[in-house]
Amino acid sequence: MEDFQNKLNLIKERIKDIHKPLILELGVKEGRSTKMFLEICDKNDGNLISIDILDYSKVSNNPKWKFIHSSDDNFEYTKKFIEKEVDVLFIDSLHEPNHIRKVFYNYFNFVKINGLIFVDDVIWLPYVKDGYRDNDFVETTNRLTFNKILEIFNSNKDNLTLDMNFSASGLAIMSKIGNHLNSEKKIVNRLFSFKNILKKFYKPKPKN
């Protein structure tokens, strides 16, 4: 709980001065991020759109909030509710790399230039063996998500900036600086190449 609140505080600090923001939130659950975003909207005369496959419509009755009861990858349906460019996109729905990739590429088109994109749960370190949240499944999922974010960024350095916050389960923080997204490409890892494996076994003696 405290770890997530720290991430919310970080997001709040980054967006607190945006005037009349339109915030798009993917995933509501307990409504903690929803309520933080609504604080910003009340203060800065903004609006929040939240999408979740479960019905969280009773989380708030704030008139600045629009809840869409839908899967966030039902794009033909959800796009009807996004009538102008988005200042902030928060992705915290299904934590699975291919789903994150799918919603990222779709909703990126709605984010304005210099808009901010936050992706929650991208760090695996707390979940490694003997870590304080030791969990094999989450470790694997977050590792794959982290790699997917890097692949997207590596193919779009002219379109995105990227910072990673490693607190708890982590947070990817991106800024949109270009309108076109290239398809991501797998990053070749040479760490386990034959050449580098050979180096571990064959180390020439230094010349005298």
Topology:
Layout: H1 2-15, E1 22-26, H2 32-44, E2 47-52, E3 65-69, H3 75-78, E4 86-91, H4 97-107, E5 111-120, H5 136-154, E6 160-165, E7 171-176, H6 194-201
Parallel strand pairs: 1-2, 1-4, 2-3, 4-5
Antiparallel strand pairs: 5-7, 6-7
Characterization of the model:
The chain is an alpha/beta fold and 208 residues long. Helix content is 33%, strand content 21%. It is built from 6 helices and 7 strands, in the order αβαββαβαβαββα. It has a 7-stranded mixed β-sheet, sandwiched between helices. The protein is elongated. The mean pLDDT is 94.
| Number of helices, where a helix is a run of at least 4 consecutive DSSP H or I residues | 6
- What value does the Rg take, in angstroms? 20 Å
Q: From the coordinates shown, what is the CATH architecture?
A: 3-Layer(aba) Sandwich
Uncertain ranges: none
User: What is the helix fraction of residues, given as a range?
Assistant: 25-40%
Oligomer: single chain
User: In what range is the share of β-strand residues?
Assistant: 15-25%
Assign the CATH superfamily: Vaccinia Virus protein VP39
Largest sheet: 7 strands, mixed
CATH class: Alpha Beta
Widest sheet: strand ordering: 3-2-1-4-5-7-6
Q: How far do the termini sit from each other?
A: 59 Å
**Outline type:** elongated
- Secondary structural class: alpha/beta
